[in-house]
Amino acid sequence: MYPKLSDTVKNLLKIQKIDEGRKDILKPFIDYVQQKIDTKSSININFICTHNSRRSHLCQIWAQSAANFYDINNVNCFSGGTEETALFPKIAATLQEQGFEIEKISNESNPVYAIKFSKNSLPIIGFSKKYNHFFNPASEFVAIMTCSQADGGCPFIAGAEKRIPITYEDPKISDGSPNQSEVYANRSLEIATEMFYVFSQIKNN
Q: In Å, how far are 111, 131, 148, 159, 183 from 144, measured between CA atoms?
């Protein structure tokens, strides 16, 4: 990992606090990943939120990083929405501040970002898309619903083997406020803490 990102991870692991209620919510996700490990199958994870602009990207990026950190192989993390918008720039800025290296590789209204957690890692590709976009898996994946709107408004995810709600408060509530940066940083670290907890529970066979 890049040194600054490594420091961020070390700090969150030191103070990692997840209450029992959240552990219960995360357990089906852990069980899904473990079952795939036990059967030596690829682990395809699609994090889904309404606009695929904030929470789903944070989950995708932190989950992929956590899988790498704990040497869990064959993990492929994706994200999508019930509609396409754009990755919100404050998400990229927040992740950069926490130690990721990010490069914008296109400049249209829905830009594409290359996001790396280490010098030699494959970049995570971030851009807004519908959950069933060609870029995402069509079958044999778990759908992680990261917002209650998408979970309630999209009752059927074609191709998903399992659907698991793991929802987070939208940092968008702070947009335009003096504490926007703090809210985005805290939401990112909350998601990071839970994704690292999930992959820390996986037993490699």
A: 24, 11, 11, 13, 22
Closest-CA residue to 112 (of 144, 77, 84, 87): 87
Pair 201, 114: CB distance under 8 Å: no
Question: Dihedral sign, CA of 170, 62, 56, 151?
Answer: negative
Q: Are 6 and 98 within 8 A, CB to CB?
A: no
Q: How confident is the model at residue 161 (pLDDT cuts 50, 70, 90)?
A: very high
4's CB contacts (< 8 A; 6+ apart) are: 98, 99
User: Distance between CA atoms of 150 and 176, rounded to whole angstroms?
Assistant: 24
Contact 49, 56 (CB under 8 A): yes
Angle between helices 20-38 and 180-200 (to 10 degrees): 50
CA angle 2, 125, 31 (to 5 degrees): 80
Say what the pLDDT of residue 61 is: 98
Count the helices and strands in the chain (H runs, E runs).
Answer: 6, 7
CB 46 within 8 Å of CB 79: yes
